[in-house]
């Protein structure tokens, strides 16, 4: 706790809010034509950057090794928001990579051979659903995924993020979201009530 009773997190949050507010005020005082120029999306460059991100990431991304399904999700979802689809080879590579992140006992890890986690399962399933198509959608082992979700369910009714992991609202949200994307909620309704 800081001297006034506030936490370090609160102080950091207020600092970020202050910086964002200053940027917002600076932007708000620029004439509309200037705002438009500042906010121009370099669409072609953005698409090129996203495509390259699915091929190979630089060494500075090594810290995100356990978040690789998230990188796929952010890139694939961004492409979808831009109304673009991946070329055949990139799409197949993404599906194959996400399939290698799928744990033999269900769920998806942050990378091949890593422990399954509800957050990376959410990212992987969302990536696969966004890609769509028979190959992508059939790559999810639904039976094993269902069993993984049941294993993550705590006797209290909440969900854990991973085996023996923390229980919080993220776990509930990601479990329910993954379930609804992967199956119908009919058979799962009983087990989450």
Automatic annotation (TrEMBL):
Keyword NAD tagged: no
Cofactor(s) this protein requires: Zn(2+)
Chain ranges of the Prenyltransferase alpha-alpha toroid domain: 41-181
GO molecular function list: metal ion binding; protein farnesyltransferase activity
Keyword terms of this UniProt record: Metal-binding, Prenyltransferase, Repeat, Transferase, Zinc
Pfam families tied to this protein: Prenyltrans
GO CC terms of this entry: protein farnesyltransferase complex
PANTHER family: GERANYLGERANYL TRANSFERASE TYPE BETA SUBUNIT, PROTEIN FARNESYLTRANSFERASE SUBUNIT BETA
Family: Belongs to the protein prenyltransferase subunit beta family.
Protein name (Swiss-Prot/TrEMBL): Prenyltransferase alpha-alpha toroid domain-containing protein
């Amino acid at each position: 706790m800081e001297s006034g009773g506030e936490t370090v997190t609160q102080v950091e949050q207020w600092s970020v809010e202050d910086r964002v507010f200053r940027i917002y005020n600076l932007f708000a005082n620029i004439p509309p034509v200037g705002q438009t120029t500042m906010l121009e999306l370099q669409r072609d460059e953005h698409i090129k950057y996203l495509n390259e991100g699915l091929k190979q990431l630089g060494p500075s991304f090594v810290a995100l090794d356990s978040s690789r399904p998230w990188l796929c999700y952010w890139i694939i979802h961004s492409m979808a928001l831009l109304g673009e689809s991946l070329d055949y080879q990139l799409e197949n590579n993404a599906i194959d990579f996400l399939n290698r992140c799928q744990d033999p006992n269900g769920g998806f890890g942050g990378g091949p051979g890593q422990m399954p986690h509800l957050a990376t399962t959410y990212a992987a399933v969302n990536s696969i659903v966004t890609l769509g198509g028979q190959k992508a959608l059939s790559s999810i082992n639904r039976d094993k995924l269902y069993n993984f979700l049941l294993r993550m369910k705590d006797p209290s009714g909440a969900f854990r993020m991973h085996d023996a992991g923390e229980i919080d609202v993220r776990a509930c949200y990601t479990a329910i979201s993954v379930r609804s994307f992967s199956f119908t909620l009919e058979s799962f309704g009983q087990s989450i009530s």
